[in-house]
Amino acid sequence: MALQLPPGSLPNLGHHVNLKPLPPNVAFRETIIKPDGTQTYTDYDSLPGELISLSGLKREAEESSESISKSYVTLNSALKRYEDLVRMRWSKKTRTQRRAILEKAWHTDIPTHHRPDLLDFRRGELELDRKRNRDKNTYMWPHINLEDLLTPATIPRFLNSRGRNSPCVFANIDWDSTGLGREAMAIRQLRLDAEHTYWMVLETDDLSQYGAVKRIDADDDRNPNATRGLIILEIQERVMEFLVKVCEGILHDKELDLESLKKIPEEPEPPMIPTTKEGVWPSAIDLAIESPYLVPQALLLDRVESLIQSRLREWEDYAWSMREDPAFFVDVVGDWSEHSSTQIQSPSRKAHPDLASAVHRRTFWDRTIFSAINEAYENLVVWNIVCRELKTIKSFRKTQVEGNHARPGDVPGYVEAVQKLKLLLDARIIEKLQRELGFIFPSSPPMRSMFQRHKRLELRSEVPKNDYLLWLGLELYEMKRVPPEILAMELNRVVQHDKKEKDRVTPMVARFFADLGIAYELRSRLRMICPHLFDLKQDEMKERDGLLSAWSRDTGILALYELKMIVGPSHAGKKFLSLGDLGAPPRLPYPINKKRTKDTVETMQVTERNLDELWAKHDEHLKKHLEPEVNALLQSAMPSRGELQRTKDWVEPRTLLRKTGQPAMPSEYVTPSDSGRVSGSTFDLPIRKDKAKTRGLAEEPSTAPTELAFRHEATLQPEIRLKLGKKAYHTLSTLFHKPSTTSQPGEVPWTDFLSAMGAIGFQPEKLYGSVWRFTPKHGTVFGTETPINFHEPHPVSKLPFKTARMYGRRLARHYGVGGGSFVLGGEAA
To answer: The pTM is what?
Structure first.
């Protein structure tokens, strides 16, 4: 059994494992299955724009910076005296009153909907209004819209962030917000008509210097951003004027000129407004929607690191369940089957040849099972590398802070580390996810009828053009003009907030959306640290190619390449591993949701043996065809969860004594502890002690999977006993249900699951796609504050028993809880 390591600690994915280099003609991207091109890069400075003289540039910059400075001082002075009053008055105003203030404050018609730039761009792309020109205002200020600003807390947060922080704090995010406008050519960056290059001062708290234009010396490595700076200043000038007018509208009876404000004493800054409403679970999408109105959190890498580590632990549980749980294995393979482009019919509505005969279907299952297994290896290795690189960046950040360095470039190796991780994200994670979504999304059951299989997947002519979800998905895959991070976030937002669209997204597609959301959140953090790295120009490609070459020598990437060459359908040739005869879903019946009988127990045992045989064949294939070092590295990425849980032999039930009205306490599983606990603590999980019963039902022989406990030398964690209400108790009883001949498990409503997890001490947070993260509120209860991810079911809003059972097992392994950990009413034992 492979040794499990903490996230980010694969053996080098390091320095003491020597693997063969990639062949000279193999590029870094070719370590991925089926590479198909590279991401395009746009040099915004080369886009056609009008010329501006140096004197004109300086004049416009000076006028804008003076206006920004004046508005900032006014807003800052007003908030220091009236911010509490502003919040109170705004909270008491009706939606109609708020709207009137916003419409009066903005210099033109204020858009109604979220991301008006994206909506306007789509209308133009679909040629629904050919004569309409792009509205520059829509693209310059996409976050100025009624849908977002009328949310009760948005304006108070917006006023606080811009009024209490220098304009320089927002320069980079204001530029980034115009990405779609620049792609749509609605925003044109001017070209400087000057003999030398110039830069604009945008990184200073000194308002007298903010926006100053200076010449770049020959030995200076600064970016010639002077004309870009004009766009930033124009954005900030309008935003600050808008916020001052909003403040005046709220404080209509107060004098807000500086002379009057100086006569009023300053008050302490009120506490930060919570990012979520009371009684509402926090959501990553809602936080992302709010982020343009908040102070940029560039250096809060701990949050995104926690997201990645919890996702990595989920992949570890996923990989283990693929080996242990036939029901889960069948679900995963079934998902890949249902999301294969093979499922899409021809223009004449004929099925794919691979589905037409038994021989071809076996080949189909061979490829499908490969995809299901390879996904686990790919994600475990690559996300471990991401964890490692992120730790390196955090250490450089610590050096910058402790050394009081002004810029990341002042710390040797810092910029290179950010660029290295950015490249891995772009070429190995984001590009791969978007490419795979290009066939998974159209092939999914709700969408496939809209497509036809020709030389490539094509939309059928009868499909309406006004399908927003469909447009977003295809635009993301084709990577045309809309910045993909905008599309990824919008897809996640639509799925979360629009039930009709959510029902059209399968759990598998939602999982891909979730991973893409996490990847782009990390990318946005890196962009805030080193924004210049994200404006790559053609003359800088050589440095990028050097980093590609470095990644091509990484041991983890090399190991995945070697794996592809012995198992990939398009690469392995005669070495290709055929597992369809063992792993096709029809061959793995597993009646876990039925009452236990002799027949169901024997069926489950046979299926478990078949799954064990499949994995034995897989592992032997890797051992035979891979170098020992490569195989050892790959297996070290796979998790260890102790012994596989297997169904015990059938035993005839004992005689029924007599019934009782007492609530049945579910017998907890005796589960192997997680030898790879991130917290480093090891302990025995609670083991049920059988007691002689004097009334009720005689103890029925268990036919539950055998679950062994491993003892460790470390001090054992005390048994957890939590008092619960009836509803939470009933929910958790299903998660830790003990199969028997007299009971049949039921489904668990997702809202009940959320409430039950909150009742036992977890803080739920909605992330991306279908992912929810649950973080222990108090580490003393479970011995760790390490979060765990679970997926919300949809379109049906209930967890089927086989999923609830798997969630229960994961809770037992990570936190040591079982059926006996909960007490109904009364005092905990």
So the answer is: 0.80
